[in-house]
Please model this.
Amino acid sequence: MATRRRTASTTATASDDAKIIDLHAWLFLLREKWRLLLCCQLGMFALAGAYIFIKAPVYTAQAVVQVAEDDTNVINIKSVDQDNYKSDIALKSVEGAFASNSLLARVARLNNLEKEEPAFKTDAGDPPKTDAELADVMQRKTDAKLKRGSRSIEINFDSTSPERAAKVARSLVDEYLKMFFEQDTKMAVMANEFLGKQAAELKERLAKSEQALQEYREKYGTVSLEDKQNVTADYLKQLNFKLEEARSNRLKIEGDLPTLRKSQTLPTEELLAMQSVSGLPDVQDALKLIAAKESEFSQIKKRYLELHPKYIQTQSEMNALRQTLERAARKGASIALNSYQAAKEAEEKLKVALQDQQKTGVELSRISIPYDELKRQADSDKLLYESVLARSKETKLSEGLEKSNIRMVQEPLVPKDPSKPNLKLVLPLAFAAGLLGALGLIIVQQVFDTSLRSVDQAESALDLPSLAAVPEIETKGRRRRGKKTPAGLALIDEPGSRQAEAFRCLRTALSLLPAGTPKVVLFTSAVPGEGKSFCSANYAASLAQQNLRTLIIDADLRKPGLGAIFPTPSGADGLSDLLSGKASFDASYHSTKVNGLAFMPAGHRNASPLELFADERFASLLRDARGKFDRIVLDTAPINAVSDTLLIVRHADATAFVVRSRKTPARALQRALHQLDGADAAPAGFILNRLPSKLADYYYYDAGNYSSAGVYGT
Model:
């Protein structure tokens, strides 16, 4: 007996691996479910068509306004509620203002929408809509949206009338401007009243501060303390300058004072060495004359001798000039002594005058502290009063000016085509909805569908090798699907078909089992309807085509199925008759249309088929059959339906487990295999039956151009 490759504990893991998402498998699944896809698409397009037919056309008019950074003013006067529209938050606030309930209700009333627009009308007998209800309907009809990256706002309005849509869209902008102007005017009036009160208070306070300043001036006998302080400061500067000058003159002479006092006895050269003497004008003039005369005398010395009259005259003049210089020097010394005394006296007087003037300045500074405080208060009150008075006049002037932070850049035009229903949007949405709906249904089917769809999925889930993959039956233009005409012998009816070649592959796979070619092969399945009778009959036919004497036994005594493929005379003996002792072995089987293939039918119905298989006579039957036939094929009952097969499976050399693709739940298959494992009769492999013929390239049995070339044979 063959054994399964892994234990039952690994079955769940193999089943989980089979659930891994395979995009290739999903592609073929969509191809397989094309009818469902088509039905969903047609259904959604039908719904879309009904929607387009029933839905009343809706027209959308659009106005575009641009928000300026500042209010547009006729005159250069700032508004009392000046806003900064440079930020994105301010732009969003303008966008939200177009969706305000007060504006929407106002526009609805103004355009009489509660009587002209169907969505705004009330039923007969109901009270008129309130402003809140009108605004709620307008909210659904109106859309104000700020365009990204710009300062423009699009205002859209939907209506069943194109003219009304354009009219209301324009009205939304106009009424916004009016409301903005009304609010601005109201703010200006309130601000003007406030500024008027403030101006009166400031005027009274200014009068008090100016009166206090004037009283202080009269108290200290000065009209302008600032001018008096400036005069005192200038006089102090002059006194400081004169004092420094007198001190400088005194210091210049004071160094030469000891020498000057002895000037009458000192030589002229020492007198001239003192700056206080040599710097006098008379001395300087005498020195210049002597220098000029000495230059002249040097030239005369070169031309004349000492006794020459010219020489003697010049020398006399030189001596006279020296005497004049000496007198001037001695006189200058006396003058310097007198200048020292005068400078000293002047310095003392200037010091006294400076001290007196400093006292006057200190007194003025003391007086100026409260004076400056009073003057600052008066100036501040005057400046504030003038500012408030000017602002009050500006506000009064701006009350009647229309200002706005927006301007219309696109007038709402009467739309030509309806915006709803939008064919360009409805049809793609219908297509997408149909596709998504079909995919959803397919996914739901797949979630609840635990059947096996491909060879690799079955190998992973069942932990068994694949013996063959049999395509869906197609013969001469008629197709077997579901409960239509039962299948026959593909090897005989269409030997060149894919189905026939699949059974030749099954014959080869069973002949290559590790335990050797089995002589007795048992076919079973988990539940009825898997196609085990069809597979066993065709396998038996493939053996007969190799000139092997083959006996196929219908061992399903409860619901035999081979009789439709191998017809026998009515009332012919069979397996149940042989096991119950009512017929001999040779009388229990019959020839068929396939050369070398004999068929033993189920025979007459027996009340206790399980007891027949439990008897040792079935083993004896197989021993007799082994002696007369080269191969024996057993078609047995489904494992999960009855327990008959579990009693006879131990007599077979190999068990072929038939699985119908896309139908049998995996749990039923696992249950059947578990029972076979309990009977120590693990299948040699499985046959995946009735695979879709149009998806052969996915289900791993496509032979390329071999099938179309007609090269299949026995």
